[in-house]
TrEMBL record:
Positions of the tRNA/rRNA methyltransferase SpoU type domain: 21-161
GO function terms (MF aspect): RNA binding; RNA methyltransferase activity
Organism: Nocardiopsis sinuspersici
Keyword flag NADP: no
Domain of life the protein comes from: Bacteria
SUPFAM superfamilies, alphabetized: alpha/beta knot (SSF75217)
Full protein name: rRNA methyltransferase
GO cellular component labels: cytosol
Record flagged with keyword Protein biosynthesis: no
Length: 182
């Protein structure tokens, strides 16, 4: 597809998509991971991003290498603690669903991801903090079939955000199933 066709296609999906979707990022320290997360946020229309812990800074030039100009398109707030970030998301009307391989978590396809939902992801090395897991309204994990410990955090974020959007899109009528370019 030509860039103008992609723009038109994006516009069509933007008009149809109404659910509010947000993200809380806790202590994702690698700039390339945060950049990739920002690009995914821009792609799926994340309304707000809360950053906490020692997460990388969206303005860091190293973030820009993977964000590719999308950082400016994602409204974000940095808060100094996880309880503050959770409170901000709750105050804004979101149900917080932490994405983590944690006890009590339900598989992604069964998670309460309908709008208004704020997904939360954790640090590359130690995952979501106990405070985040305790303060979330629900926990979900992405099932893994291979013999791996976990996904890269940016990849896990993309899978979870895509699933949250898919929930709304799956409820659309046949018109929305038209192939791109029609
Ligand atoms: C690399 S993982 C952290 C792994 C860490 N070694 C641990 O054992 O907790 C970083 C983040 O990615 C997300 N993540 C990665 N794989 C996941 C999965 N299969 N299900 C849910 N979240 C996942 C979580 O948000 C996690 O906090």
């Amino acid at each position: 597809m030509r860039p103008t066709d992609v723009k038109r296609l994006n516009r069509q999906w933007r008009r149809r998509t109404e659910g509010r979707l947000a993200l809380l990022v806790e202590s994702v320290t690698q700039p390339f991971n945060l950049g990739s997360i920002l690009r995914t946020c821009a792609t799926f229309g994340v309304d707000h991003l809360w950053l906490t812990g020692n997460s990388a800074d969206p303005d860091d030039p190293k973030v820009g290498k993977t964000a590719l100009g999308t950082a400016a398109k994602v409204e974000h707030t940095r808060l100094s603690s996880t309880p503050q970030a959770l409170a901000a998301a709750h105050e804004a009307g979101y149900r917080v669903v932490a994405v983590e391989l944690a006890g009590g978590a339900v598989p992604l396809h069964a998670a309460p991801l309908e709008a208004d939902v704020c997904l939360a992801v954790g640090a590359e090395d130690h995952g979501c903090s106990p405070a985040l897991l305790a303060g979330a309204d629900a926990l979900t994990y992405i099932p893994q079939i291979g013999r791996v410990g976990s996904l890269n955090v940016a990849v896990a974020t993309a899978i979870a955000l895509a699933e949250a959007r898919r929930r709304e899109w799956a409820s659309f009528g046949e018109d929305a199933d038209a192939p791109a370019g029609n």
